[in-house]
Amino acid sequence: MIGPKPAEGALTYAPIAPEDLPRGLTDAQAPGHYRLEPGPPDRWFDYVVGPHSWKAWLFPARQKLFSADRTAAGFDLTAHEDPYPPTAFFGVRACEIAAIEVQDRVFDNGTFADDGYARRRAATLIVAVNCARAAETCFCAAMETGPRARQGYDLALTELATGTGLLLEIGSDRGAAVAARLALPPADPARQVEARAVSDRAAATQTRRMPQDVAARLSANPEHPQWDDVASRCLSCANCTLACPTCFCSDVEEVTDLSGAHAERWRSWDSCFSIDFTHVHGGPVRRSTRSRYRQWMTHKLSSWHDQFGTSGCVGCGRCIAWCPVGIDITAEAAAICKGGPP
Ligand code: SF4
Ligand code: SF4
Q1: What is the pTM of this model?
Q2: Whole-angstrom Cα distance, residue 14 to residue 90?
Q3: Cα(51) to centroid of ligand 1, in Å?
Q4: 287 and 179, same domain (yes or no)
Q5: Where a domain ends, among 204, 234, 259?
Q6: Same domain? 144 vs 24
Q7: CA-CA distance, 306 to 321, in Å (whole number)?
Q8: Which of 58, 149, 279, 305 has the most CB atoms around its CB within 10 Å?
Q9: Pocket lining: 238 vs ligand 2, CB cutoff 6 Å
């Protein structure tokens, strides 16, 4: 079971036992700011998303793909797959289910299918938690991905008013098989209404919005002066892409032992913010921070629709909280949509 685990001042996703679930914690988030803090002591799920996302388990940050060993006749190739036993993701938020579904389109789409991703995905049970509060950086309601999970889960929990329990919903046959092993009474209609109200209240506190016509406006404004403005603040550090649950760029590297008898190919996360990401004959294509930020945001919010039929942003707010200079993707999108050609 992978679930929320406090580590180094933040909530991470790591192997946990049921008794390890953190209780009585909340988080304070703002542009460039994240603090894990004591919350109401009896509440189980009053924090939201931290710097980790589930992609670290479905699309690991560093993976060995294959190895090659020298033989008398040439070399032998051996494909490598890390073990991935049947796994439960516990505490998946609605925006995170949406992010997993975005990555499904990237990694499991037939044309560029990633067998390892498909294998890990099929072996994963998703236990969702519907959010009862939103962080200041959340905008899932505007992206229509949350705060209540509508699909894509096996089981979903809603924490009702303190002391009144949890509502469990079943989303799949696998979830039903797990729920059948629990001696639970059927939920009465009042509790079902209350569960919906819990998420509605969390949605109502969200203040950030994404402009309606953002995809068209971004692609129509490649020379908007706001790109220079944001480039003057952006450090090109890549935090936003590494924290983002949908970003999927990677690099491959070959490593050899000193004897030259054994070599391995590894895949690791990369970012469109790293200058070498577009290195081709003659040097990198995107040399300026302006061009790299523009690439990231226009891909995420505009050309992702052309490529994958969906936005690349689910409104989780991680890139806002974990940007060291507090750049806010919703504010940048609004600034570009306000000026320039339609
Ligand atoms: S772009 Fe930012 S808000 Fe959107 S999914 Fe990625 S990290 Fe979350
Ligand atoms: S937008 Fe922020 S997090 Fe992203 S590369 Fe620039 S400084 Fe780093």
Answers
A1: 0.96
A2: 10
A3: 11
A4: no
A5: 204
A6: yes
A7: 28
A8: 149
A9: yes
**Which residue, judged by its Cα, is nearest atom 6 of ligand 1?**
244
Residue 75, domain member (yes or no): no
The alpha carbon of residue 336 and the mean position of all alpha carbons in its chain are separated, in whole angstroms, by 25
Asked whether the predicted pLDDT for residue 163 surpasses 80, the reply is no
Judge residue 99's burial from the number of C-beta atoms within 10 Å of its C-beta, 0-12 exposed, 13-18 middle, 19 or more buried. Answer: buried
CA distances (Å), origin 319, targets 50, 167, 296, 304, 314: 11, 31, 12, 17, 11
* Closest ligand, as measured to the CA of 55: 1
Count other C-beta atoms under 10 Å from residue 126's C-beta. 25
> Is 186 a residue whose pLDDT tops 70?
yes
Domain count for the chain: 2
Same domain, 105 and 165: yes
Atom of ligand 2 minimally distant from the CA of 233? 7
Q: How confident is the model at residue 237 (pLDDT cuts 50, 70, 90)?
A: very high
pLDDT at position 342 over 70: no
Its domain, for residue 125, covers: 2-61+82-204
